[in-house]
């Protein structure tokens, strides 16, 4: 994370302190956020881990349990926080988030308005992008959800960069105090076209609006509304394909077109008495293979971008 106070910045160089948030990494598909407490204990299938043993270690450390199992203590970066946060709503993931920040031209010092705080996944990355001198003003119509988001931003030390408001932006529009002050506006609403006129008034000349919608019908309606005050209207669908990389045993075989490698079954062939030199003559070998993940995350939504016209 990159909070507004540089002295509180979390990095791999800073050592873990009592009260810090750490990401406990058990394996690539099993991580959790834990707040360090001097007397706290984490218990999982790898054993018992005392928080007191974590204090003073740098982020990224490998720590062992009494059973010699181990975990890694990672800094709560926005990328990792997106993977472990509580899902109060559908969230944006890394591929969409990185595309949004780049295409909306969000840099340190920017003022960003967001409608649809939800679980705070995008908000967390927006805060890092505008730090240390920018600010993110995010709104949600659900008061309890907004309260949970504030707690999360306190926990991740981003409260100096993020202000959470409760408002029905879709029905009432953005507060008048933001007129002409926003560099970017992000909308995650069921009917974004109702908020687009208000968003246009908040943007500086040449500012950028982005709307996230899961259905193409929402995109079509939004684009029709955008035509009146915006230009350079574009819609994207970002698809992410992940790969599993692992070591596998292979056997050299020969076909009509020459040699190739084919995977061997997991069980090894029993060796006979005459196979004492098998290790020297065997063509078996271990290679690293990559294949698409069995469960790939597909469509999440459509991202529509538009630039506010300079009048």
From TrEMBL:
This is tRNA (adenine(58)-N(1))-methyltransferase. InterPro entries: SAM-dependent_MTases_sf, TRM61_C, tRNA_MeTrfase_Gcd14. Its EC number is 2.1.1.220. CDD domains: AdoMet_MTases. The keyword Cytoplasm does not apply. The lineage of its organism: Eukaryota, Viridiplantae, Streptophyta, Embryophyta, Tracheophyta. Signal peptide: none annotated. Its main location: nucleus.
């Amino acid at each position: 994370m990159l909070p507004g106070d540089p002295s509180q910045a979390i990095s791999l160089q800073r050592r873990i302190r009592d009260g810090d948030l750490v990401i406990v990494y058990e394996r690539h598909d099993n991580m959790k956020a834990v707040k360090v407490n001097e007397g706290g204990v984490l218990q999982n299938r790898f054993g018992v881990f005392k928080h007191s043993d974590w204090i003073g270690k740098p982020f990224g450390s490998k720590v062992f349990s009494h059973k010699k199992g181990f975990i890694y203590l990672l800094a709560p970066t926005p990328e990792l926080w997106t993977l472990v946060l509580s899902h109060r709503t559908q969230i944006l993931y890394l591929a969409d988030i990185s595309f949004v920040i780049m295409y909306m031209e969000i840099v340190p010092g920017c003022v960003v308005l967001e409608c649809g705080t939800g679980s705070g996944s995008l908000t967390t990355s927006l805060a890092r992008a505008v730090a240390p001198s920018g600010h993110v003003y995010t709104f949600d119509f659900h008061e309890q959800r907004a309260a949970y988001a504030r707690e999360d931003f306190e926990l991740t030390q981003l409260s100096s960069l993020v202000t959470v408001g409760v408002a029905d932006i879709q029905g009432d529009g953005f507060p008048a105090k933001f007129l002409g002050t926003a560099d970017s506006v992000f909308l995650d609403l069921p009917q974004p076209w109702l908020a687009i006129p208000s968003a246009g008034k908040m943007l500086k000349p040449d500012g950028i609006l982005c709307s996230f919608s899961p259905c193409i019908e929402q995109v079509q309606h939004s684009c029709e509304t955008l035509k009146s005050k915006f230009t350079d209207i574009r819609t994207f669908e970002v698809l992410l394909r992940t790969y599993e990389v692992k070591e596998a045993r292979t056997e050299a075989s020969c076909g009509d077109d020459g040699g190739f490698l084919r995977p061997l079954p997991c069980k090894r062939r029993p060796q006979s008495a005459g196979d004492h030199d098998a290790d020297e003559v065997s063509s078996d070998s271990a290679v690293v293979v990559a294949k698409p993940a069995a469960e790939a995350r597909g469509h999440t939504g459509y991202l529509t971008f538009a630039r506010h016209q300079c009048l």
